[in-house]
Amino acid sequence: MPPPAGRWVPTESPTNPRFVVDEGVITGENPNGATNLTYTVVRDPSGGGKIVLDKTTGTFSYLPYSTGTNADYSQNFATSEDVKILVAENTAFDQALENLPVVGALAEPLLVRIHRVPILGDALSPIIGQAEVVTVTIYDQDLAASAPGPIAFTTTVISDKKSTPISVNWFPSIGVAAGTQEDAPTILNGPSLATAGYIDPNQTDTVFGLVPGLYLLRDDYNVVTWDPRGEFASGGVLHLDSPNYEAVDVSSIITWVTTQGATRYDTVLDGNPDSKDPLIGMVGGSYGGGIQLTSAGIDPRIDVIAPGIAWNNLYDTLYPNHGFKTAFASLLLLSLVVSGSRIDPVIYSGIATGAVLGILTPGQKRFLEAASPSNVVEQIDIPVLFLQGTVDVLFPLQQAVTNAESVSGQPVKMIWYCGGHGQCLDPIDPTKQTDFLTGQTMDWMDTYLLGKPNEIPTFQWVDQKGDIYKSDFLPTKDSPLFSDTPIETEAVGLGTLVIAPLLGGSGPNSSASFPVSLATASEARNAINVDIPNPTGSGAGQDPTAWVVGSPTLTLTYSGVGTSRNVYAQIVDKNTGRVVGNILTPIPVVLDGKTHTTEPISMEDIAYTMEPGDDLELQIVGTATPFENFTSYGVINVQKVELSLPTADADEVEFETSVRGTGAPASSGGLLGI
């Protein structure tokens, strides 16, 4: 079979300009590329290195494998490594297949498999195009020796927990790599769940616009990324960011960082560089947010953290008010299975019993609680910037509030943005919001690692219109942020609600992308509706704006019969038809035929700016796809509802900026990258 036209011809000379060290990273160029070709790695580097290959251009960045045991990195590489790359024609048929909804993502790996079967690939070449596997040899030692400073590499760190091998990636700061500075502070950037440690030096952000990527971080910092235990190239079994496992791995990585010659130490506090207390910051979202909390809770060498969309207690957030989050728990499991993760069997059984029966056993509860930051968060005494999503249906806003109330360090600041595990459906400009979030995080790191001042407000939040407000107070319990005049309503004799799976309840939300739509609340057809008064207006004594910020409180009086243990409450913006925050709250009920009144129940936190003309209502629904299980049936008669919405004191609120737009950020909780 003739090779594809314009194929990539690999070099055999280390001096060929196709291979260069660019800002400390080995980079491969493809001068012979063509616009109708695709490039796919079919065999990883032979010596344990890692590669990021551009599918359409054939250019790549590459991390050689190193023992990484001393400052002279160039002496720790193999002579060379080989990478095998499939170069294939990209036909109209291929493009049509990849553009199919849902299944299009499976087209590329399927085509690669077909191309690699000689008879089948040749037979289908008139349709799917010709292909050839080429071997690229990269000369590690020679390229490293030609660089003005140390280069990026990958290595293995042996964790103190059960001597588990952890795959770690090291990127020297741009100044260190250029030889213009001797050392730099180090930032650990943890990946989200079912995601390998970040290795793309051109990545500006991660976790769907929340976290600064390597491109931004490396201006002033050495950066460490890694594959968490039980995932990708690391060994061991996944324990969900446990203080006793994954956090110990991070401590071992920090100890390894002290063996690197480019590491800067905290001599201001310690007065002695021999103390081996490196200047360390951490960033990351979701799984990469939780690991910051458990790590900082056990390792005092960490100087500053910025946990994004993290959690306080896994049991509380997966099983709130004894309602199991079946939709997102299933997505979590699917992510782990698809990525080939090796996880503790308790995680499998917990998701299975939760999804089928809607319950967790005592043993599963103990596992989730043991793996939670709540065990160690009180020991965190360093600056913390919490970033949490207003539409996060997995780890809601209250998880960050609880963490902020628990840490012992100062300062503690918080940002609520439109994102998280879910999908922002509000009119937000994703580029503006990403620039805002990554900029705030970089300023936070710069303050405590480089000594630069910042003006980050104590609390910032984005409302449903894309406007960002600020306050000098956090939205914690009894905070001066809250006014003495909440929005209150009471309704009686509201009627009967039939409870049956999928019967006109909340979700799935067709405006959100599948499968996140299953975990996203929507206005329900089968519901008890209660109007919420709008206190704003232009008349005498009326305020033109009310900021609903925090957790509404609901009390329910009811009677009923059935097997269901929960109904659900949500607040709907009647003008847009959207549930505020895309989120609803399980309300525990006892359907034994008797009349019951619940204790005041804290609903999930929301952020909503109410102005004249805005129209909100409370919905009580009997079924919801985010919590769906097929054991819930019954009838409930709602006799009385009391609702109170917290409002911010106008004297404590100030407009900060706007990230309004016509579109909305992509989902940050799809099958992968949770």
Which features characterize this protein?
single chain, 674 residues, alpha+beta, Rossmann fold, Jelly Rolls, 3 domains, 11-stranded mixed sheet, 5-stranded antiparallel sheet, 15 helices, 32 strands, 21% helix, globular
Write a structural description.
The chain has 674 residues and is α+β, with helices and mostly antiparallel strands. It folds into 3 domains: 19-146, no CATH class; 153-471, 3-Layer(aba) Sandwich (Rossmann fold), CATH 3.40.50; 487-650, Jelly Rolls (Sandwich), CATH 2.60.120.260. It contains 15 helices and 32 strands. A hairpin with a 6-residue loop joins strand 8 (153-158) and strand 9. It is globular, with a radius of gyration of 27 Å. The two termini are 43 Å apart.
Indicate the topology.
Elements: E1 19-22, E2 25-28, E3 37-43, E4 50-53, E5 60-63, E6 81-89, H1 92-98, H2 107-115, H3 118-128, E7 131-138, H4 140-146, E8 153-158, E9 165-171, H5 174-178, E10 186-190, E11 205-206, E12 211-212, H6 214-217, E13 222-226, H7 246-257, H8 267-270, E14 280-285, H9 287-298, E15 302-308, H10 314-318, H11 326-338, H12 345-357, H13 362-370, E16 384-389, H14 397-406, E17 412-417, H15 430-450, E18 459-462, E19 467-471, E20 487-499, E21 527-532, E22 546-550, E23 553-562, E24 566-573, E25 578-579, E26 585-588, E27 596-597, E28 601-602, E29 606-610, E30 616-621, E31 634-645, E32 654-658
Parallel strand pairs: 10-13, 10-14, 14-15, 15-16, 16-17, 17-18
Antiparallel strand pairs: 1-2, 2-5, 3-6, 4-5, 6-7, 8-9, 9-13, 11-12, 18-19, 19-32, 20-31, 21-30, 22-29, 23-27, 23-28, 23-31, 24-25, 24-26, 24-30
Helix pairs in contact: 7-9, 11-12
